[in-house]
Amino acid sequence: MRFDLTDLRLFLNVYETGSITAGARRTHMTLASASERIRGMEGTLGVALLLRAHRGVESTPAGRTLAHHARVVLGQIDRMRGELDHYGQGLKGHVRVLCNTTALTEHLPPVLGDFLRDHPRVSVDLQERTSVEIADALRAGACDIGVLADSADLQGLHTRVFRHDPLTLVVPRGHALANRRSVTLAEVADADFVGLIEGSALQEHLAHHARRGGKMLSYRVRLRGVDDVCKIVGRGVGIAIVPRAAAVRLGRTAGVQRVALADDWATRDLVLCVLDTLPAYADALVSYALRDAPVKTPPAGEPLADGRAETTSRTRSRPG
What we know:
Layout: H1 5-17, H2 20-26, H3 31-45, E1 50-53, E2 56-59, H4 61-88, E3 93-99, H5 101-118, E4 122-128, H6 131-139, E5 145-149, E6 158-164, E7 167-172, E8 182-183, H7 185-188, E9 192-196, H8 201-212, E10 218-223, H9 226-234, E11 240-243, H10 244-254, E12 256-261, E13 269-274, H11 280-289
Parallel strand pairs: 3-4, 3-5, 8-12, 9-10
Antiparallel strand pairs: 1-2, 5-13, 6-13, 7-11, 7-12
Region (Disordered): 296-320
Organism: Achromobacter spanius
GO molecular function: DNA binding; DNA-binding transcription factor activity
């Protein structure tokens, strides 16, 4: 059995996106070349890795096994390359962080700014993923630190609350819903939405809960940033679901009003998670991230990387 790293990265991208087309695009490869490589992998193994359907692909048990090992192998390779490259540049550490949309846009930039300023010989690789993907990546050893919604399955992870992160509906000023105290997603699912680009962690989260209610959200436009989403909503184009922190920050300038979401899954915390003991430089980043964390007395448990007690290592029933 001979798979090169490109094969493994391609298959993992296809597995994560649920589409050969999207996986090929993420791997910077043509669809024809990607399809040929995957067929070659299946031929080498003598077993199907993917079940092809009109709207995408699903992994077979063999495919899921391959994806798990591909994630581990590629994670180790990326970490080796990154750390050796950075040592060669005079750096002493490289921290891999995965986070969801809200953490990336609202909370982590000032944390990373302070940390990197104070630790000039450490670099950070920051990538956006859905909360479910982040939890899986942590358990597979594919990243050092994860910042994700507490609605994900956190089994086996050491966690601390990072920030409160409820989601809220934003509507244009004067909209028919503007005077409502709260709504559910089911009540507004048939409206025209403004959202983030396909593949963003927040949009995957919303799509999941819409599907659970038998709905599919309709978007008039998708944009790259939450700021742009709120500005377009303020111009009367549609409605949107965004982190409340962003809605509060942008309410006046974007011309939007907030309406609380009554769904349980919209009331959530961002948690910072690690799997095991971290190197000192990564441990320092955890300490910076938790400096402004909500004050909360956790139950007794194992210490997290910064020496404080973890809140829990638990399984949650709601994916997110």
